[in-house]
Design goal:
Helix content: 10-25%
Order of helices and strands: HEEEEEHEEEEEE
Number of helices: 2
Largest sheet: 7 strands, mixed, barrel
Strand order of the largest sheet: 4-5-6-7-8-9-11
Radius of gyration: 19 Å
Shape: elongated
Structural class: alpha+beta
Amino acid sequence: MRLYCWSILLFVGFICWPHAWAKKIKLTMTFTPSGSFEAISEKLKGNLVKKDGILQSERLWVNAHTFRTEVKLRDVHLTRYLNNSRISMFDIKAQNGKGEGTLEINGVRQPILMNYTDKNNHVEVTFDIDAAEFNLPKVDFLGIGVSNLVKVWVSAPYRIYKEKETKKN
């Protein structure tokens, strides 16, 4: 019986492990006059490193076509809205729950300020963007639109940077 329980725990652990530390980005957009939807991609690329207590990355990116909502037609429209571009974050530096970097969408770069929570070799980052600052078109169809304010949530693991020890002769 004990062996059976351990086997189940190991099986569940192996299934859940890749998802527990997966790189993920979620965009939350609000409909006008009411409602909202989320677009999620688990295809975030790039690496985060923590060196001397500072989280940093030269670049993290995701391709627009990798975002999924619960509606396939909305996925197509979102990809077109983002001009099928790559969304990139450059020069990220963060410490003590706050950070900054540069966000590029639609070929336009803007500085961003972010908050993060460190969860033991894994961070959850949040920040808001104004779609108009990135020259993205206003969405409005038959009186239903999407607000320019987009809430961004990023989940990503990081590694601790360790200097290589030099060999003593």
